[in-house]
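In response to reviewer comment 3 from the previous cycle, which asked for concrete evidence that the modeling workflow produces usable outputs, we include below a single protein chain processed end to end. The sequence was submitted unchanged, and the resulting structure tokens are shown without manual editing.
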Amino acid sequence: MKILFMHAKSFNYEVKSEAIGSPEPLTEDNRSASVTNALVAFTCVEGDDEPLEPLVRRAVEEVLDVYRKVRASNIVIYPYAHLSSNLAPPELAMKVLRGIADGLKERGVKVIRAPFGWYKSFSIEIYGHPLSELSRSISPDEAVVVSVKRRVEEYAILTPNGELYDPKDYRVKEGEEDFKALVEKEALGKELPGGRPRYLEYCKKFGLEWEGLSDVGHMRYNPLASTMVDLVSLYSWKCAKELGIPVLRVKGTNMFDLADKAVREHADLYGDRLYSLKVGKRWYVLRYAACFQQFAMIKDWTISYRHLPLGVFEIADSYRFEQPGELLLCFRLRKFHMPDLHILCRDLHEAMEMSLKVHKKIYEEIRKIGRDYVSIYNLTRSFFERNKDFVVKLVKEEGKPVLLHFVEEGKYYWVINVEYNIIDSLRRPREIGTFQIDIDNSRRFGITYVDEEGQRRHPVIIHAALIGSIERYIYALLDTAAKMEERGEAPRLPFWVSPLQVRVIPVSKEQLDYALTIAGKVEEEGFRVDVDDRDESLPRKIRDAETLWIPYIIVIGADEINEGILSVRIRDRRRKVFKMTLDELIQELKTKIRGYPKIGSYLPERVSRRPLFR
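The workflow returned the following structure tokens.
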């Protein structure tokens, strides 16, 4: 079988006359068609195209692969005998073409199949990107092999003692409930529990929203949310610098030319998850993470073995063409911010040693917010067998079992890819952090370093998201708050990332000037503070501050001014009120913020001077 693919901006055909003695019957639906943004598959079924079932199955996969890469809206299966001189009998050809169309429809694709055995006129306007014209040749032998070698997912459970178990045979121990949820979902294919996650209400509270005027899956951030995003961004850079190696911070563009071989090959690894766009006559891809830009930059550097291991960091606006039904606010987006760290290492041994540090740091960060990960190790079986001691070291650092997922040899650019999942408040695994050991991309992009003997070598590259994407880290914080509320606690954010850290509330207008003075002194120390100067009752002001989870609420009346003592309601101490001096309060705030970034408020100091956010 031969297939010529054309990604058509527009395509139309019309039946003219019979081409064979017994052509396929015509209907109102197949007599003519006119479509836009279509993948047209000009298909020729050949005389030796048997057995049929594996051949059709393979053809469906080939067509789907191209369809997803070009992001067409529909597919046209068009009989085209001119691709071969060795034609199959009409009955066989019609059976194959119907099978391909039916197989694609079963996969949820809109398909038009032109009738077989007729002369037809057609017109076509082709997009000009590198994937707009492709051909495939599928032989019966190749199709049979694909059918026989259809991969069955292989999983195993590895304990910190190095013991391996089949997931079906593993007995979950006390305290391993989160790991059980991961195994049931990933390895045993059990349905996830449903329900609306509570954190979505929190997103609305802090202004983490969908942007309705953009493509689906894109977010917007009001001043409260912007504060959180910028703080987490600063923190991700701080985490990268704490690994104990030199780390260089870079910035770059987010759009790369698909005509470049390295870019195209790397883009092919992500298939239908990539955004692409046409500018003039050229096609570009929006970056999936920071890889394109960092690799394009690093290849131009002169690097010595003395510099390694060397980190390169960027907070990259990243784009993934997630399906509409998969989108979830803050968690699964089409556009997000990835604090992407790549670490260049001399060889695989150094990369494994460095990965242990990365692994430890990833766990250290999630445990700071009171959570823990359960992990999936995606790796080849050969890598595991050669490096079991290394894998067991990773598991020992976790202190609990992990789920191994064995992938096909040579399919990916990495040899191990660790996915770190929290189990959310609805008992579903959610991937946050990750790292990979990449053995291919330095060759693909021409990245080298000079070794001790003056020879150029390709480094091994670690990809790491120490805290996950900015949005997913915020998601983890909000889901943690949801778990607090389930336990009957006041939900809250860590002090350092709370959009507003202190609110000063004067009981009446007579105390406003004093309240502004107190707020000014707190602000001088670098904390985000405001003053509720509205003409509202004291209970209403306190309730509004509690609604925004403000960690410290200071109420100032005549007694506080006379005594020089502040009445401070502290959220993480069960909202109890404590008497303290201003110096005592500032000292407590400094203790809380130690080791975390500080930025000023993105809002006016007085609450009365702000618009209402819906």
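The longest strand covers residues 2-18. We consider this sufficient to address the reviewer's concern, and the full set will be provided in the supplementary archive.
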